[in-house]
Amino acid sequence: MSKRLLGALFVQIHLAAILSFYATKVIETTSSGHWEAIAIGCLLELLLAWLYLKGLSAFPGRHIGEIIRETVGAWAARALLLPFVAFLFFYVILQSRYQLVKINIVMLPSTPLWAVLMLYMALPIYAAVKGIQTIARLGAALFLSFMPFVVFSMFISYSNFEWRNIFPVWRSDPAFLAQPSFYTSLFAFSGFLFLGMVSSRKPVKLRKLWPAMALVTVFQFASVYVPLLIFGQETAARFQYPVTMASDTVDLEWVIFDWLPTFSVVSSSALGIVESSVRIWMILTLLRKLYLPMGDKWLAGLVGIAMFFLSLRIHGMQMLDRFFALSATLCLYSMIVLPLVLALLGRYKRRSSG
Amino acid sequence: MATRGWEQLLVEKFQGNADFAIKQAVIAGRAVAVYMFESIVDLPATLERMDQSLVGLRPDIRALEQLADLYRLRADPTLTELAHLLLQGKLVIRHPESGEPMVFKAEPPAITRPVSSAENENRIQGANDAFTEELQINIGLLRKNLKRQDLMIVKYSLGSTSCREVALVYLRSETNPEIVRAVDDRLKQNKRRDIRQVDDLLGLLGHPRFALVATYVSTELPEEAAQNLLDGKAVLLLDQFPNALAVPAIVRDVWSIKTDHNYPQTYLAFFRFIRLIGIVFAIVMPGLYVVLNSVNPELLRIQLALSVAKSREGVPYPAFIEVLLMLLVLEMVIEATTRLPKSIGPTITMIGGIILGQAIVQAKLVSNLLIIILAASTIANFTVAGYLNTIGIRIFKYVVLFVSAAFGILGLEVAVIWMFLYFAGLKTLTVPYLSLSVKGSKADE
Amino acid sequence: MTRMTRVLAALLPLVLLCGCWDVRDINKRYLPVVMGITKGKHADYSITLQIPSVIGKTQILQQEADSISKALDLIRTKAEKHVDLLHLRLFLISEEMAKSGLEDVMDFAIRANDISIKGMVAIVTGDFDKTLHHQISPTPEISSYDYFSEESGWTPNVSIVRIWEAFKGSQSYTEDLAYPIVHMGTDTLYDFRGSAIMKKNKMVGSMTPEQTLIYNIFLEKYTGGTIEAAKDTTVIIKKAKMRHHKSWTASGPQLKSDVYLDVAVTENKRNLSNRQIAEEIRLLIDEKGDEIVAKMRGLDSDFLGVGQIFRPTMNERQIKEWKTKWFPQLKFELSVKVNIRDNIYFKEGRQR
């Protein structure tokens, strides 16, 4: 996979999370100094991604499943990676569910959830079966065709920005670190983990990814600060979908279409499809390698059905939030332990090979 | 081969064919037996040409052999090969002494058409001569267009019951060697398969059978084919088929015509932009009409919503059915006009456009707006480069229509993503469809 | 069969079976643009929907119930077509309603998924039912919306408040709002009658149109309007700029605001010199400004958004306490600087 494809995919995976729940969680986390929460997340990801890629570079052409299996054995690999697979699994459910509610509210108020969910899940599973190369090309195509909508829906409301709402900027006590929603907001930073699965021959360099990372950071800040600047912290904190709401605040005659939140939802759900494809593909690859040696199509069918029904079991926003909080531990485990393990393995490998 | 055996076998094989002839002729001062199909060989002209090339030589057996060197195609052919060669319009002469068959190239009677200007592909700026049915002439046209040393031409004779000649043309320094190898392997492996239509050839090359998009570029212009070669594609020429097939097609071919390069860069960019917009319009418009009309009218500005509602007032069935009906009528108009004689074509246009269009609106069977939308989308459809691609888009528009009729704007989005996904998964001859260039391994849209 | 066709085959029955939950053709929907909300005679709310049609007539549906959504439900029951709120762009609220608080109206408007939060809010004074049923011919199809639309009928004297702004105003720690007040017009749909001053969700007072103009200047929303500076002299405001000097002393926040006005003289019958005109405008605006400040004080409503100006200097606790503790202590001065633009055709100050 070329660098550009990888970069585009990297951006999309992050953007999907940013546009769906990230802003809500960050605004929930703290009442001022939001940038501190964002910046901590960014730095954390930078550090972990560096460790992760460092470890990976010692094993060219392998993905993490193979690496861990070959160095510490099959059972250890299964144990180490089980939380990761579970995290991916729940993540896809949560993410698609989150998007679904938004779709349901903005675009299809009376269509039952299962029908929308079926449509929404079919594509990622189909894509996942076709493999990462296909997903990457799909990602590139969607990147070009949907990015304008993302940018458009995000910044369309600039005329309503009230810069004074930024204040107060500083916050000296890091009380938000104790908030559970801060840790759920870290979900949005777990995107780098997919780099360990693409198993490219040439090791991916962090340096090469910096344009993608910069873009992601810009959007991370924008997604939090656009609603903040428009509504002010007091009001934004009350909204479930602040970014979508923000795009509804303007009335532009020159846009042919009227209901602008649709753009926001359309673009974020398109990104959501790419993200889910990648994550389902990761699940399939790891499952096949470590747990269930089955045909791709069967495995995909099983995973798809499981996700479909689990996702329908979530009844409301509150339950969704609880779920988010629960899987935050899995997320933290995958984000912190995996890079550390890989870094150690990489070091060990380099030592032993001289 | 037995000395007289081959003659008898030939006669047995083609017995009952009125145009299979055995003639006695004098070549190089010797009487020889000549085997041929009269219908595809002009014997007097061939003999005359042979005589001309023998002027100044003593008429003896050496002269005949020299002649053979000049015109001989293959030494020591098998019987089936001999039969195929005869069917291809060659002359078979029995060697007066050894009795071996000698195959000579013959002058064809005037049953091929000369190189003329293109009928179906119009170019405003660009060379206008088109391929003909004759393979040899087509190859010549390509050679004339590309005066390069690395232009490679490989010929294959395919088929067991019938015989079809196929030429693979490529540029050694431009074409991706993997493509050439893939084509070459497949053609060699399937040597005995019969090729009647392009379809058979593509099946043989391992193209997907139910592809929504054309996985090859078909053109009747040598200039276009030459440009395709320069872009790294391989070109297949089929005998008795006046189009060159460039494989593999990539997404770029939907909006770029190679002769665009005869214009300044700005104009080229403009054309391609228009075509891209055209593609989007053609695919999305009918679906969008249904979306805006029946699922997500909130997307329309209120002023527009009111006038749309007014134009639909009195239409008895849902927007989806309305669009489907009109689209079917339109498809029929298109289908009817493509193969009609040029003198009747305008009648259909008039009936379809004026009478049907006017009446259907006045009868309140469909809304005005729909007619406008469909007309726009059909026009947009034909801005696409290459006739084959327009068909793919015509089909794809129905997928969009169906899904968006049920799921509104989300359905539209999902259908478009599915299309991208389908393209992303499509791979012909080792080249993914979603790549910008056939040459490298770069793959993005 | 290839995988693609299989997927297609799987998708097709899905599409066909799924029926169409959201499918309802546009000509089978009512698309109301204006919603009127007032106190009902027999129930808590009386909801009126104005539904425009292309022919130029407006259809009106009205229903009373104890909650807004119940009233809408009743309207839906009696309507011939499906009532779609997606295109609601204007909420007209009766003065009586506004005075008793708009909390539930705001809550409803934000909560309802099918109402766009960019719709505008205005308060109707006088006879509410008459205003809503008022029709003038020939009416452009959606004139009541056009009246507020910045692209068509809006003039700078009129304040615009959108639902999200209203909601924000009711939530914000540091600002209040002023809603426009309209009255049934004689030759047009509405007459503008100034602005309603809100405190949180309640209407506590009102401003005259002239005061609204100053209010708009203060919010830097004002350009292109005319003011009568003195008898026989009229100027048009080309540019208005504010500069705030804020300080926070032990006695509380202090704000000195300078208004810089760029004006052009449009009528000058008494042939005053530019300096005189400037002086008159200054006096006029000073006077109106004082009135507004007095209102702000008296009603204890921060509708000028002074809290927003102080936001950068406050910490979180102070922001939360702004309306209760600091705003009453605010010292506020408004001064005006007027610059008269050169006139193109007349030389300045030449007597005949």
Tell me briefly what this model is.
The complex is a heterotrimer of chains A (354), B (445) and C (352). Chain B is an alpha+beta fold and 445 residues long.
| Major beta sheet summary of chain C | 8 strands, mixed
CATH H level of chain A: which superfamily? Amino acid/polyamine transporter I
Shape of chain C: globular
Distance between the termini of chain A: 30 Å
Strand content of chain A: under 5%
Number of helices of chain C: 11
How far do the termini of chain C sit from each other? 96 Å
CATH fold assignment of chain A = Amino acid/polyamine transporter I
Cα-based radius of gyration of chain A, to the nearest Å? 20 Å
Annotated CATH architecture of chain A:
Up-down Bundle
Low-confidence stretches of chain A: none
Largest β-sheet summary of chain A: none
Radius of gyration of chain C: 25 Å
Q: Helix and strand succession of chain A?
A: HHHHHHHHHHHHH
Helix content of chain A: over 70%
Overall pLDDT of chain C, averaged?
78
Helix content of chain C: 25-40%
Structural class of chain A: mainly alpha
Total number of β-strand segments of chain A?
Answer: 0
Looking at this protein, list some descriptive labels.
A: 354 residues, mainly alpha, Amino acid/polyamine transporter I, B: 445 residues, alpha+beta, 5-stranded antiparallel beta sheet, 14 helices, 48% helix, 13% strand
Question: Could you explain how this protein is built, in words?
Answer:
The complex is a heterotrimer of chains A (354), B (445) and C (352). Chain A has helices at 3-29, 34-57, 64-72, 74-106, 113-130, 132-155, 180-185, 210-231, 233-236, 242-246, 261-291, 296-313, 317-352. Chain A is mainly alpha-helical and 354 residues long. Chain A has a single domain (3-352), classed as Amino acid/polyamine transporter I (Up-down Bundle). Chain A starts with a helix and ends with a helix. The mean pLDDT of chain A is 83. Chain B folds into three domains: 5-104, no CATH class; 135-249, no CATH class; 263-432, no CATH class. In chain B, the strands form three sheets. In chain B, strands 5-6-8-9-7 form a five-stranded antiparallel beta sheet, sandwiched between helices. A four-stranded antiparallel beta sheet of chain B has the order 1-2-3-4, sandwiched between helices. A two-stranded antiparallel sheet of chain B has the order 10-11. With 352 residues, chain C is of the alpha/beta class. In chain C, helix 8 packs across helix 9 (274-299). The chains are: A mainly alpha (354), B alpha+beta (445), C alpha/beta (352). Chains in contact: A-B, A-C, B-C. The A-C interface holds A 31-32, 105-106, 108-112, 115, 118-119, 122, 126, 162, 164-165, 167-168, 171, 230-232, 234-235, 238, 245, 248-251, 253, 258-259 and C 7, 11, 14, 18, 21-22, 86-87, 113-114, 116-118, 149-151, 162, 164, 167-168, 171-174, 308-309, 311-316, 319.
